[in-house]
From TrEMBL, chain A:
<feature type="domain" description="DUF6596">
    <location>
        <begin position="188"/>
        <end position="288"/>
    </location>
</feature>
<dbReference type="InterPro" id="IPR036388">
    <property type="entry name" value="WH-like_DNA-bd_sf"/>
</dbReference>
<dbReference type="Pfam" id="PF08281">
    <property type="entry name" value="Sigma70_r4_2"/>
</dbReference>
<dbReference type="InterPro" id="IPR046531">
    <property type="entry name" value="DUF6596"/>
</dbReference>
<feature type="domain" description="RNA polymerase sigma factor 70 region 4 type 2">
    <location>
        <begin position="122"/>
        <end position="170"/>
    </location>
</feature>
<dbReference type="GO" id="GO:0016987">
    <property type="term" value="F:sigma factor activity"/>
</dbReference>
<dbReference type="InterPro" id="IPR007627">
    <property type="entry name" value="RNA_pol_sigma70_r2"/>
</dbReference>
<comment type="similarity">
    <text>Belongs to the sigma-70 factor family. ECF subfamily.</text>
</comment>
<dbReference type="Pfam" id="PF04542">
    <property type="entry name" value="Sigma70_r2"/>
</dbReference>
TrEMBL record, chain B:
<comment type="similarity">
    <text>Belongs to the YciI family.</text>
</comment>
<dbReference type="InterPro" id="IPR005545">
    <property type="entry name" value="YCII"/>
</dbReference>
<dbReference type="Pfam" id="PF03795">
    <property type="entry name" value="YCII"/>
</dbReference>
<dbReference type="InterPro" id="IPR011008">
    <property type="entry name" value="Dimeric_a/b-barrel"/>
</dbReference>
<protein>
    <submittedName>
        <fullName>Uncharacterized conserved protein</fullName>
    </submittedName>
</protein>
<feature type="domain" description="YCII-related">
    <location>
        <begin position="1"/>
        <end position="114"/>
    </location>
</feature>
Amino acid sequence: MAEQPTDAGTDRAVESVFREEHGRLLASLVGRFGDLDLAEEVASEAIEAALVHWPVRGVPAKPGAWLLTTARRKAVDRLRRDQAYAARLAALQVEADRAAPAPPADADADLPDERLQLFFTCAHPALPAEARGALTLRCLAGLTTPEVARAFLVPPAAMAQRIVRAKKKIREARIPFRVPGADELPARLPGVLQVLYSIFTEGYAASAGPRLQRLDLAEEALRLARILRRLLPAEREVAGLLGLMLLVHARRDARTGPDGGLVLLEDQNRDRWDRTMIEEGLALVPAALTGGPPGPYGVQAAIAALHDEAADLATTDWPQIVALYGVLLALAPSPVVALNRAAAVAMRDGPEAGLALLDSLAGEERLRAHHPYPAARADLLQRLGRLPEAAAAYREALALAGTEPERAHLRHRLKAVEPSGPDAGAGT
Amino acid sequence: MKYMLLINSGAIDANGGAAECGVEDWMAYDKAVQDAGIYVSGESLADLVTATTVRVGADGERAVTDGPFAETREVLGGFYVIDVPDLDAALDWAARCPGARGSGSVVVRPVADFGA
């Protein structure tokens, strides 16, 4: 980055540097000192120091190296002061680090990127599932604890406790900072991808609350997935996950109506889809699907790609989508995937065929509290003209739906199939 | 770092012993732990029917009852304490343990270190 001495320019540069460098800085410090708490503290001290110095002297040519050197010095000072760390000080030979000259100005490009280790630590299966996303957002996306709390709609104190507990487990159970070996990677990578995808879906369709989309979380998930893609360029499922996120996120503006209401795929104004993002996502699909058997994210990206490429619902390649859902069902059997496949079959073969498939899923435990299931049945019943049954299914969905925009959408659909009048619910 | 592997048996036979693991499996595992140089200590516990529980109430009264809790599904059958670099290594050893198979499970607990 070039010198940017002007005030406004400096502020912006400082902020973007912090966003970009925080995860990298933290990962380097954790790799160096093996202590997440210490790393976080000196990272923020280094950033505070930058806030004092940079507006006066300008942003250094290699801001990342500047931050790392400053943070390391602060860590060494702290270790020296703190008797409890004395033994570790000797063990780590940080003295040598202190004596070493600051990295030369061109070192920035060669700064070791240890963020991959941090990704695997934050998504470690020994940590509680609800802490993994929070920790990833905090350590790798550089969000503060209150920001993470707001993102997940959790009170800040509860989120702080969740993070503190997770860090305590990392420290005391000694969860390592390491990238799993090639033999372990196939078992561990899905855990990391799951964390990013759940951050994404949490941001995309909030499971509760008034707002349908929490775009910030989806954007953070995208940013993290891009980083992971750079760190693991050969992993097809990473390409698949990033592709899937891009191809879904490209529809964000069309998904919400002017009143904040939910707009389904079939009713979306496809001119409002983000073409640049679609192109970027489409480019990743071949990488995700070639060179070996497909993974679940690659297949889902391919399905999203078919939707994004279609001009409208009628010209969508439904036979191909049904086939891909079949592949996905074989890879990762789930009643939710079976539900999506049934909806695609309804588009290919008509509502009757789709409804038969949906009804065959009626016994599935996981669909019992899943509002898209009765909503999909209601839609097909409506198309078949079986309005009283459709109304009953919409009511069932309404009783389960989480976000207010989703509920408003279902109420709207219910109105269309209900006979008008005050005794509408009584049936005809 | 020391970790205790608490070996729980899911299915218990009529005598309170673990039902699913062969003696040869255990001998092979024990040898592997010893050969790796990570063994600190370990014991196999006698059958559950031999267990006795002691509680001391607030009044200092001693209550002695037969067995651990009634209706216990998982029963601690034995343990190892191993010394390995980190949790991932401990989890690998837990996964190799015959007691982790079938209805059994192994709980991995770091041993508290008050010396630091």
